[in-house]
Amino acid sequence: MCSLLVVLCSQKVLSAERNAVYAPADSVLVERLLRESKALKASDNKVIFFARRLIGKPYVAHTLEVADPERLVVNTRQLDCTTLVENVTALALCSAKKKYRFGDYLSLLRTIRYRGGKISGYTSRIHYFSEWIIDNTRKGIVEEVEHAAAPFMARQTLRLRFMGDNSSKYAMLVKHPEMVAEIRRHERLLDGMEAYYIPKHLVKDSPETRRAISDGDIIAITTSKQGLDIAHVGFAIWKKDGLHLLHASMTKKKVVEDTEPLGAYLARHKTFTGIRVVRIMNVEL
Q1: Which of 72, 124, 181, 267 could make an SS bond with 20 (beta carbons 3.0 to 4.6 A apart)?
Q2: Which residues contact 100 (CB under 8 A, 6 or more apart)?
């Protein structure tokens, strides 16, 4: 049995079990949502069900940076765009597999977040979303939707450098500069990989886009920012006026389901270039 780890974070004492750090409110919420999901019909969209249950949660960055050495951090009370996607993915898969215990959720979250599903320090956590897609595709958890045809009319070539070149922006790398070399090694492993994406001028309500993107797909927003691949992530929601994004919004400081179409949201951000589309597998069971 793992020893109990107590971590003080944001003036809350968080308990840890099975190498996981969390507050009692996290386990309560997770098990409540999983119990509620038992009432879903086979035709109901589990991803959207769980994502909408988290609307209103405050946006807080760097919530995973509280454990040294690295532990699985669970924080459903405060979310950023990536932790929203990870939590919803784990919840949807737990529900599909009819696994309703907090321990089941912890196991899935660990599998999703870490390279090969194993925790072996800060650098074993997947820090770039392109690698997140690759690693979770290997695990059979997701599948990227991409075609060499409309609306996927652009290709992204990975040139990942941001963390290695900006290590001073990451508290754990400042504390442990010896980790930077390992971060750079993983950046180089992805160098030159390509993916098709939908350029932002084609993110509109068209037959091609409706065929390509389904409700609950993960939307990964590509960027022209040097050294980065993905600027933001969220979930696809189709409405009468087109495609919308459910996401943890930095500007609105909470999880929201945007009222404006995604195309308009992308147009307002100069460095956003388009979207990659990732589908969570086996959530319809």
Answers
A1: 72
A2: 31, 34, 35, 37, 38, 94
